[in-house]
Write a structure and sequence with these properties.
This protein is mainly α and about 90 residues long. It has one domain. The protein starts with 8 loop residues before the first helix and ends with a helix.
């Protein structure tokens, strides 16, 4: 199912549920070039970024955790607690 902004609902829930437990909005904003307030709003569950910005955010997150083993483990643990797929399935 698609949300109003065109992003798959599962992908949106995955991002908004597990990402804040692992990485700060500021770090994601820096990686994507988006405003910190925009990223924070998105991670609070407001899917009003639009598909392309949301996808940019998601790709930046995957790039960051690809290079940091500890963050990857924290993300996998946070995702499992919420019944969501880990990093490999999130791709």
């Amino acid at each position: 199912m698609q949300t109003g902004a065109g992003m798959d609902d599962r992908l949106f829930r995955h991002l908004t549920a597990a990402v804040p437990a692992v990485i700060s909005a500021r770090r994601l904003a820096t990686a994507t070039g988006l405003a910190t307030s925009t990223v924070r709003r998105f991670l609070q569950g407001r899917n009003d970024l639009g598909y392309h910005r949301a996808l940019r955010l998601y790709r930046a997150f995957i790039d960051i955790i690809d290079h940091d083993k500890e963050l990857r483990q924290r993300f996998d643990a946070a995702a499992r607690r919420r019944g969501l797929p880990g990093v490999e399935r999130a791709r």
